[in-house]
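Sample intake sheet
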Amino acid sequence: MTQTPSYSTLFSCLYDEREPIGYVGRGTHYSVFRSVEWLDVERKQLAKPQIHDFAVIWDEDHDERIIDVIERIYMAGFLSPVQFIGERKGGLSIVLAARYYCGSSDDFRGEEFFRQIEPIVSNVNGDSWNLEIGSFDRHDTSARGHQTELPSIIQDNDEVAFTYLKNIDNLWRLGTKDWSPKAIYNDPISVPFPPVSPDPLRETV
C-alpha cells in the first residue's frame, strides 16, 4: 500500500494523485486533505472540534506552492467553508460550501469572504495570487444550479467541471463533520480465542 505524502504539518493528506488521470481539463487531478476545525462550515464557534475534508484540484504542473496559501488561510480561521481549492495559471480558485457562501437573503457571505481572503493571498512568499470565489451545493444537478456557481477551477466547460467535482464529493463527502473514534472490538463472542498450546509431555518414571 502506497503511503500518501506529507504536504503540510497542519493538515493530513487522505488521498493523493501525483499526475493527471483521464482527460478532464488540462492535466486535472486531485488530492484530499483533512484538517481539524473549531469553526463549523458557517464559521461559527464549536463547543468541540470537527474534522474537515477538502480537495485540492491540481493542474498539470502540480504546483505545491498552493499548500503555503492553504496553510495561511487555515491559520487565519477561514478554511472551514472551503470544499475545493485549486491553482491554475497563477490564479487561485476557492469553492465554498453553498450553506456558507449564500447565507440568507440578507446575509450573503461570498463577497465578505473574498474581502477577507484577498489580503492573505496577495503576498505568499513573494507570490501574488489572483482570487476567484465560487460555491458548491451537492444537491444541485448542474454547474449553474440553485446554489452552485463555479469559478474557473478546471480548464474545461462548466458541466464537465461540475461533474468532476461532484464525483469527488460523492466519494469523500467533503466538508466539516463530527469526529468518531475508531470502533473498539469488544464483543467477547466474536473475538477469537488465542490458540491453545498442547499439553506438555508427562515425565515418565
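Comment: The longest strand covers residues 45-58. Helices lie at 65-75, 98-102, 110-121, 158-172.
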